[in-house]
């Protein structure tokens, strides 16, 4: 028995959900869903000079995100884990706890790796419903969903994602990426020539989560705000510390650091790569760098070594 919703009823269903949630459609946005829980820039707390009191800024709201792909849903599951361990990120969870993730995807689903409820397009008029937990179950309204014994389903042409398959062996990837740096593989010089150090790959990545902190004082000098904003390890000042020392002076070191964090450090810390092969970094890179191709070359040479 399948739970089905007709395509034409989805809009109406979302209007009803809109009474309890702020519905945000992320499906055509360049920046990934992480921006709603880990904003590009946010004030975390303020300090009042007169009262000497610290105040956390409450940013929680009931938000329902519509997400367009299984990769992005999977990335949200991973990001939740990163923001939970080793230390819970209070500011992320303040927003994330009350939110609901709804996938609306045009892909065949074997097992959804993220989201609370996922709608899988099964033909031109209908979507099959995958309920993943109680948050997702609470979104079901009988009026819009019907039980069907055998719905008519379309078969999506199965395009193998070789990059995604490579991610399955995250141990091999970690070893190969670290080896490529230690053995001074030529690819890092080639990439240093190409990379503009613009940071776009980090901003569009649904999993990158590095940030910097800044304290700002109000114009009348009465309050101070601690503000955090997205940062990117490819940017020149990312590894610069007080006194001016920079741990990663060259673009070669900075660009490698991006891979090191995603494929080596992440593997050691979480047992998997911080990448879901969504392709957003490749699609938006002004220098045309293709992460899947870079990893393919590194792994090929590592196996041959
Ligand atoms: S988007 Fe491309 S050019 Fe910009 S930092 Fe990333 S790899 Fe380099
Ligand atoms: S393909 Fe690029 S943008 Fe997508 S998860 Fe991997 S590193 Fe991030």
Short overview:
The chain is of the alpha/beta class. The chain is built from eleven helices and eleven strands.
What is the count of DSSP helices, taking H or I runs of 4+ residues? 11
DSSP helix fraction: 25-40%
Mean pLDDT: 94
- Mind describing the biggest β-sheet? 7 strands, mixed
Derived from helix and strand composition plus strand pairing, the structural class reads alpha/beta
DSSP summary, beta strand count: 11
Unreliable sequence segments:
none
Provide the gyration radius in Å: 22 Å
Hetero groups in this structure are: iron/sulfur cluster
Strand content: 15-25%
What descriptive keywords fit this protein?
alpha/beta; binds iron/sulfur cluster; seven-stranded mixed sheet; 11 helices; 305 residues
How would you describe this protein?
The chain is α/β, with parallel strands linked by helices and 305 residues long. It has two domains: 2-148, no CATH class; 162-222 and 231-304, no CATH class. It contains eleven helices and eleven strands. It has helices at residues 7-17, 70-84, 90-96, 134-137, 162-167, 170-182, 187-194, 200-204, 251-270, 280-284, 291-304; strands spanning 2-6, 22-25, 41-48, 53-56, 63-67, 100-105, 117-121, 126-131, 145-148, 211-217, 223-230. The strands form two sheets. The protein has a seven-stranded mixed sheet. A four-stranded antiparallel sheet has the order 4-3-11-10, with no helix packed on it. β7 (117-121) and β8 form a beta hairpin. α6 (170-182) packs across α11 and α7 (187-194) crosses α9. The model has no long low-confidence stretch (mean pLDDT 94). The protein binds iron/sulfur cluster (SF4) (2 copies). Residues 195-201, 234, 285-287, 289 line the site of one iron/sulfur cluster (SF4).
């Amino acid at each position: 028995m399948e739970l089905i919703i007709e395509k034409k009823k989805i809009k109406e269903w979302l209007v009803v959900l809109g009474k309890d949630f702020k519905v945000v459609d992320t499906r055509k946005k360049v920046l990934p869903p992480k921006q709603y829980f880990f904003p590009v820039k946010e004030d975390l707390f303020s300090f009042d000079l007169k009262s000497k009191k610290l105040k956390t800024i409450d940013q929680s709201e009931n938000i329902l995100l519509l997400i367009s792909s299984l990769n992005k849903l999977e990335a949200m599951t991973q990001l939740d884990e990163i923001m939970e361990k080793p230390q819970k990120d209070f500011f992320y969870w303040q927003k994330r706890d009350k939110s609901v993730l709804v996938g609306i995807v045009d892909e065949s689903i074997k097992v959804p790796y993220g989201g609370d409820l996922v709608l899988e397009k099964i033909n031109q008029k209908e979507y099959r419903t995958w309920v993943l937990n109680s948050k997702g179950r609470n979104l079901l309204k009988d009026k819009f969903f019907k039980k069907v014994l055998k719905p008519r389903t379309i078969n999506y042409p199965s395009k193998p994602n070789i990059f995604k398959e490579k991610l399955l062996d995250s141990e091999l990837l970690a070893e190969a990426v670290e080896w490529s740096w230690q053995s001074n593989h030529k690819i890092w010089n080639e990439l240093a020539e190409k990379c503009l150090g613009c940071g776009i790959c980090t901003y569009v990545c649904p999993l990158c989560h590095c940030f910097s902190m800044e304290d700002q004082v109000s114009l009348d000098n009465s309050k101070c705000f601690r503000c955090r904003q997205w940062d990117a390890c490819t940017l020149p000042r990312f590894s610069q510390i007080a006194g001016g020392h920079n741990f990663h002076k060259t673009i070669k070191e900075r660009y490698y650091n991006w891979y090191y964090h995603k494929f080596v450090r992440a593997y050691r810390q979480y047992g998997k790569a911080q990448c879901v092969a969504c392709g957003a970094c490749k699609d938006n890179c002004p220098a045309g760098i293709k992460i899947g191709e870079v990893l393919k070359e590194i792994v090929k040479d590592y196996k041959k070594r």
